[in-house]
Design brief:
heterotrimer, A alpha+beta, B mainly alpha, C mainly alpha, A: alpha+beta, 7-stranded antiparallel sheet, two-stranded parallel sheet, 24% strand, globular, C: mainly alpha
């Protein structure tokens, strides 16, 4: 009789969606999303770069005490170029730290290797005069709290990095002796790292990270050290 | 929502995500971030806030364009929208705090495959106006954050003796290290689920005798 | 960091850094599909295949995105490609093995929202793996996922025959089991870590 006593009729099937309609919708959505992403990217770019720079500076000034200014460079077979420019092929990033008077206090560089849980990233300070690593800090790690994270605080482990020998061979092509992590208590040479007892994997990661980085950086950096002597 | 059921009031809409359909304890969705980043209360809340942001924004946008999207391409559209907001929140977090950004790591970008967000877009936002969609999304996000906080705080207290970085038990506390490791995450979540189930069983047991009595009267 | 050998990557991803039990990726299917052994293995195989495809595409996309300095489009392009790959796998399976397609049911399209697949793409990008390293990583991730799924399914099937308190049944029990499995896998720690 009246329409109300009938159960709700199924809506009539509309025409099948045309390809144009689908493409148009996707195009509209894609444009909208594109605008959103790019605005967010541009809007936060400065803040993010500033954050990264602050964190890096803090880390570098911690491993090179007394430094107040930092400049980043790439070292490659073609020499040393400032980091602001294009990255040279096979260039290795490092940071030169200068004190109040503008004198070079040390070089900081990053090394990384697989640890127990994830990659362990370390920052080490290199003293050109002594050809040794004189400072060490951890940039990022996810090692086991209470075991792996002892590399941050264990005094015996940190002592390894007061004068870790990384001198080059006479032809400056490679490290005279590779940096190696040895079992706890068996360190005999200045280029060895005494592992933390019970945290061998993490200690080995630190040693490998430093060794890999030093092997890549120092042969390219040391011959060109003169360029860095004064804050350029 | 069951067809024929009355339209939920805004308050009920909001609360749905907190108790009845809590993403973590009831629907058991979004597990991956729930276990991975909840090693501390602060990280847990940061992840909760980030997910809520994406939930709300995508629910809003999906709801606004719901009449325009042909049904064949709707999943693809929702995925693109969600991925957009995840990229946005990724940059926002990096700009606000690099520390939190490093702590959450890849799991910020993994918000895009959090089943809750796509599920809500498909089940709710595409069928309701902007205001109910956003209310529901807010409730879900809050429920999710509460769940994460429950996990993160327990794991941090037991596994490190701290809450939000503040030491609770003094220097002689022996931390229960496994709690901040993967197995601990599974155990703590299992324990919370157990508690939740027990509470729910008690609630329905209390309601059952009353319903039984009513049934006998008709 | 890129001096890691393929064997190390494979072993470490399957055992020491198992995607499910150590990195918490792929938990939804892990808790959802692992009730029966019969569905666990095909699911693992399908996921491994999708991971391989995703890894390949992610490698190519990353090269593209970096060359044109469009890093902000990386996430969207990854997820869209993964969704498309899953769609293709679905269509392929429907055609060539309909029984398997029916058996997996709703879980096949759900591989798209499997954090493990996107996780493979994101992690290989973050760790700057070479092409071969990325492929090994993907195969290892899939193998590890299948391993965890199979172990879990076998355990849960056994538990079906045991008396379990009502409160614990279901997901809570699965999580406790997963915790024990994860604890066991911690014994592999350091495998494939270096030297």
């Amino acid at each position: 009789m009246s329409g109300e006593s009938r159960p709700m009729a199924t809506p009539p099937a509309g025409p099948a969606t045309t390809s144009t309609a689908m493409i148009a919708t996707l195009g509209l959505v894609a444009t909208l999303c594109g605008i959103l992403i790019v605005s967010a990217y541009q809007g936060t770019l400065e803040a993010v770069s500033a954050n990264k720079r602050i964190v890096l500076e803090r880390a570098v000034f911690r491993v090179i005490p007394g430094a107040v200014r930092m400049k980043s460079f790439y070292a490659s077979s073609a020499g040393i170029v400032p980091a602001e420019g294009p990255q040279p092929k096979e260039g290795v990033l490092f940071h030169a730290a200068y004190d109040q008077a503008g004198q070079l206090k040390g070089i900081a560089a990053e090394g990384a290797a697989a640890g127990y849980a994830d990659v362990v990233r370390v920052l080490y300070a290199y003293d050109p005069a002594r050809q040794a690593i004189v400072g060490f800090g951890v940039v990022a790690m996810r090692e086991t709290p209470g075991i792996g994270d002892k590399i941050l605080t264990d005094p015996a482990f940190l002592k390894n990095f007061e004068a870790l020998d990384v001198s080059l061979t006479a032809d400056m092509k490679t490290l005279a002796n590779a940096v190696k992590t040895v079992k706890h208590g068996s360190k005999t040479q200045p280029w060895q790292i005494d592992a933390i007892s019970g945290a061998t994997v993490t200690s080995k990661a630190v040693g490998k990270g430093i060794n890999d980085s030093a092997q890549r950086l120092l042969p390219l950096l040391v011959p060109n050290l003169g360029r860095l002597e004064t804050a350029g | 929502m069951i067809p024929g059921q009355h339209e939920l009031t805004p308050m009920e809409n909001f609360m749905e995500g907190i108790w009845k359909q809590n993403p973590i304890f009831v629907m058991v969705l979004g597990m991956c971030p729930a276990l991975a980043v909840t090693v501390s209360a602060r990280n847990a809340i940061a992840m909760g806030v980030a997910t809520t942001f994406v939930l709300v924004c995508s629910a809003l946008l999906v709801s606004l364009i719901r009449k325009l999207v042909p049904k064949e391409v709707r999943i693809a559209t929702y995925i693109v929208i969600i991925a957009t907001f995840v990229t946005v929140v990724d940059y926002l977090i990096a700009a606000i705090s690099l520390e939190v950004y490093e702590a959450l790591g890849a799991f910020i970008q993994l918000i895009v495959v959090n089943c809750i967000i796509l599920g809500r877009a498909e089940a709710h936002a595409s069928k309701h106006g902007p205001v109910p969609a956003v209310t529901n999304a807010l409730g879900m996000g809050l429920g999710f954050s509460l769940g994460l906080f429950a996990l993160g705080s327990v794991r941090e207290i037991l596994g490190a003796g701290k809450l939000f970085g503040f030491s609770l038990f003094g220097p002689d506390f022996q931390p229960w290290v496994v709690m901040v490791l993967p197995p601990g995450g599974f155990f703590v979540l299992g324990a919370w689920l157990l508690l939740f189930n027990w509470l729910r069983n008690r609630k329905s047991a209390e309601a059952a005798p009353a319903a039984g009595a009513k049934g006998q009267r008709t | 960091m890129n001096g890691i050998s393929l064997g190390q990557i494979f072993v470490s991803t399957v055992l020491a850094n198992n995607f499910v039990l150590a990195m918490f990726l792929g938990l939804c299917p892990f808790l959802g599909v692992s009730a029966r052994l019969g569905t666990a293995v095909p699911m693992g195989a399908a996921t491994t295949f999708v991971m391989l495809v995703a890894s390949l595409c992610a490698y190519g996309l990353n090269v593209l995105v970096t060359t044109f300095e469009l890093e902000f489009l990386r996430l969207i392009s990854y997820i869209v490609v993964i969704a498309a790959a899953v769609q293709l796998v679905e269509m392929f399976m429907k055609r060539h093995s309909p029984a398997l397609f029916r058996a997996l049911g709703i879980y096949l399209p759900l591989i798209t929202t499997n954090c493990a697949v996107l996780g493979v793409a994101l992690f290989q990008t973050a760790r700057e793996y070479s092409f071969l390293q990325a492929l090994t990583f993907a195969v290892g991730a899939g193998a590890g996922f299948t391993l965890a799924l199979t172990l879990m399914a076998s355990l849960r099937e056994r538990l079906n025959l045991a008396t379990v308190p009502n409160v614990v049944q279901g997901t809570a029990l699965a999580l406790m089991l997963a915790g024990l499995l994860s604890l066991t896998f911690m014994g592999f720690a350091g495998l494939g870590a270096g030297e």
